[in-house]
Amino acid sequence: MSTQKKSLTSSDGTAVYYETYAAENHAEPIIFLLHGVGGDLDAWQYVRDNLLKKGFSCIAMDIRGHGYSGHPRAFKKYALPCFIEDFKEILEAEKIEKVILAGHSLGAILATHIALNCPEKLEKLVLISSSNVPPPYLRIPVLKHISIALMNALAFVSPPAFHPRHSLYPEGKFHKDYELTGLIRTIWHNSLRSYLLSSKETLMPNLAGRLHEITMPTLIISGDKDSIFPTAISKHIHAEIKNSKFTVIPNGNHVLVLNNIPEVTNALADFIPERK
Fold it and tell me: Which tens digits make up the pLDDT trace of 158-169?
């Protein structure tokens, strides 16, 4: 196995950090991993290492505003097309035609947007702890306007990231759906601005009426104890994406990629064809 740490400058001038992991005797397609809001590519480290042992090569990126990627101050640099373009530019830099795209939480929502906007780049899609509709406070017009105004105001006064770096994800630790220390760590590493604007841009669009446009094979994974994006949402996504498979992990919460490593790894390995 070989690991390479890389960075590129996106078309809007933002630095995008990513890592490539080549398994022995690997072959196409590559599994591309997208982390959740406030996290970084190391959130995938345990699932990734298990996939490498099974012969699957991977790429993981720090989504802009996270980890070692740039933390732009301009609001416009958190527009949804910028996130999608970062993904495309990594594929172009690596000279890769197609990948199996796997996302967790916000990364899964971003993966859905990518599947809708550039399906030619994906062989398969994996959505873990995902959603297809904005949270309740962004669905009611009055609350939506108030919420967006508040998020924009807080983002405007937010200082830059204090100490951009990767977080520690201790092996064996149980990660709760809501953790105050995790939120503080997120703001410390990424800035409140990047946290709010990343969340707003990916959560705001309502994808409920577009999921039928996704035609590539799709795996949807949900924990039945997920209190952030309950299993009912994943069931609806499964119903809308005709060429999809749905897996529920018993007693799994939202943080499946860290709490349910064997189950997630095995579900991915079963979904992806054997290496030749």
Answer: 888 877 888 889
Model confidence pTM above 0.90: yes
Q: Say which CATH number the domain at 39 has.
A: 3.40.50.1820
Total of domains in the chain = 1
In a domain, 175, yes or no: yes
**Please, what is the average pLDDT of the chain?**
92
Lowest mean pLDDT across 64-68, 118-122, 152-156, 272-276 = 272-276
Give the domain extent around 195.
2-271
Measure the CA–CA gap between 200 and 195, rounded to whole angstroms.
Answer: 9
CB 240 within 8 A of CB 215: no
Q: What is the dihedral of CA 230, 234, 237, 241, to 10 degrees?
A: 180
Taking every pair of C-alpha atoms in the chain, what is the biggest distance, in angstroms?
55
Q: Pick the closest to residue 127 from 261, 268, 29, 9 (CA basis).
A: 268
Question: What value does the CA radius of gyration of the chain take, rounded to a whole number of Å?
Answer: 17
Q: Are 265 and 257 in contact (CB under 8 A)?
A: no
Residue 276 lies in a domain: no
Distance of alpha carbon 131 from alpha carbon 235, whole angstroms: 10
